[in-house]
Design goal:
Layout lengths: L4 H5 L4 E5 L7 H10 L4 E5 L5 H11 L4 E5 L4 H9 L4 E3 L5 H9 L4 E2 L1 E2 L2 H8 L5 E4 L7 H8 L7 E4 L8 H5 L7 E3 L10 H12 L4
Parallel strand pairs: 1-2, 1-9, 2-3, 3-4, 4-5, 6-7, 7-8
The structure holds 3-phosphoglyceric acid.
Length: 206
């Protein structure tokens, strides 16, 4: 099933950003996120087992929309598609990467940090972006300012977003969801805590 990136971003108020260091017991992590009512995950390509983890998540947890993050080039795009990822996220973007995703008809959320980035990608047809690193690149005031020249564009702010400030981000009319790593503390095996955090995150907009 092919979903547009915008429809994927509307599935949950929060997209957990996962940096997973080992494959062992990874199923427990996804089970906790699903029990916590989150529907979408971004598994970053920052670890050697990331592709394997994407493959496991895509095959074993069909109710979860599994995306890959830290997609930096065209090879990454091919690799994640071949293991079953449903969408790609990047921290920034190149025209060649954005063009390749369009050629592959692969749902893609490119990262932007300013108006020029947005204009370059709008010229290719993109309308949904990751705003990264959201807090460091200007925070809520910055994203408010982008709504003037780009009223039809939506953003998923990521980088410095957490349970405490997420509500303020989600109140912005150009914020479709937020991303963040806070739901899964690094190296934790406390799956009930992950479920608790996921549940809190899933209710952020209700
Ligand atoms: C990302 O890759 O999107 C960020 O590293 C996540 O940022 P955070 O750790 O501040 O949530």
């Amino acid at each position: 099933m092919h979903n547009s990136i915008k429809s994927i971003l509307t599935m949950s108020p929060v997209m957990p950003v996962l940096v997973i260091n080992k494959v062992d017991k990874v199923e427990h992590l996804f089970e906790a996120l699903i029990k916590g009512n989150l529907k979408v995950v971004e598994i970053t390509l920052r670890t050697s087992c990331a592709l394997k983890v994407i493959e496991i998540a895509s095959k074993k947890f069909p109710s979860l929309m599994v995306g890959a993050g830290t997609v930096l080039n065209e090879k990454d795009l091919q690799d994640i598609k071949s293991v079953g990822a449903s969408f790609a996220v990047s921290p920034g973007c190149t025209i060649s990467l954005a063009t390749k995703a369009l050629d592959m008809k692969f749902p893609f959320l490119p990262g932007i940090a300013n108006s020029s980035d947005i204009m370059n990608l709008i010229s290719l047809g993109y309308k949904s972006f990751k705003f990264f690193p959201a807090e460091a690149a200007g925070g809520i005031n910055y994203i408010k300012s982008l709504n003037g020249p780009f009223p039809d564009i939506v953003f998923c702010p990521t980088g410095g977003v957490n349970q405490e400030n997420a509500t303020a981000w989600l109140k912005q009319n150009n914020v479709i969801c937020v991303g963040g790593s806070w739901i899964i503390p690094s190296n934790t095996e406390d799956y009930s805590e992950i479920e608790r955090r996921a549940l809190l995150a899933s209710k952020l907009r209700s």
